[in-house]
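In this section we walk through a basic example: taking a raw amino acid sequence and producing a predicted 3D structure, encoded as discrete structure tokens. The instruction is simple. Fold the sequence below.
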Amino acid sequence: MAFQSAFFGGSHQRFTGAQQCGSLARDVAYEEKVETLSELEVRTRATLGSVAALAGVSIPTVSKVINAREDVAPATRKRVLEALRTAEYRPPGQRHALAPPTSTLIDVAVDSVTTAYYAEVMDGILECAESHGLEIVLSTTGRPHREPRDLAENMQSQGRRGLVLVTSRWSPKEIREVKKRGIAVVVIDPINPPGTGVASVGATNWAGGKAATEHLLGLGHTRIAFIGGPTSAECSQDREHGYAAALLERGIPLSEDYVLAGTFDPATGRRSAARLLALDEPPQAIFAASDSIALGVLTEAHARDVSVPGELSVIGFDGTYLSEQTSPQLTTVAQPLREMGRTAVRALIREMEGEKPDLTRVELATQLIVRSSTAPPPS
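The resulting token sequence is shown next.
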């Protein structure tokens, strides 16, 4: 019968009733007597025994690995995962943590797909995924908010074992909800701290914020404003802290009027620039925490006939293709966005293979790119 040939065809896979789940004859007889015990359940029990024997562990240990329990030693977990793949184990209805070993799909969930930032990060993700023979399933985590449990269950049912979150607002609890189902997770530029044991990839935001502000100070500006993203976003906080550190090192006090926040979009730039330029003592320069925000600043300055950089210097952050297409071209702090995407995929692959990351946080270096949107203040 198919059941016997699939799981007991080779002599190295034969087991006695005392050793594992009982003989095939006993299982079949029991199945005939008890209607509630399905053929699928008998097959699963037998396969767990096969996997346990292959890995040299107990059936409960195999069950712990399948259900993504943490109380299994890394070496043992790796051995069990290899045995599961060798035995081509398939959990009933894919309700367990182990996905089919033949899956080449990974999920990428982004907060939005409307900015140059996401486009360049996705370039890196796609390039690295393609080089490893992987395909991408793209979804959004923006509003309406998608429940992590729903996404995880959908991934399990489709046999997908890895998830890259880009600027996710998910809480550590929500990320754990996904990981406990055996799905590897790596986060790029998380809005909220992802929690312990979760790998994340970002850039040297504090150093980049400091470099941007020092560039403006070096040109002779002393009234420098900062427009950030969400106040809860770690990357925006770090850029603001770098801005503040540069000012304080020069003995320039911080002004609450010059520090504003919003979201990483041009609307925030326009709204904030309008407020700053209406002050009795407007800033000589504006450091925007993203190129998208800076684009809004340039638009508002043009609408008010404020010359950039003649009357106002503007600097952005990200180094996206937008920074080269503005008029004037935007001075910016470039993040290695494509490399962040590639790094995240490589980290995800290692985690899916059962490796524990050496570092849970990777920060790639930023670079100041000086263009024509910044100049010394008018004398």
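Looking at the output, two observations stand out. Residues 1-46, 93-97 have pLDDT under 50 and may be disordered. The chain has three domains: 2-94, 105-203+337-364, 205-335. In the next section we compare this with other chains.
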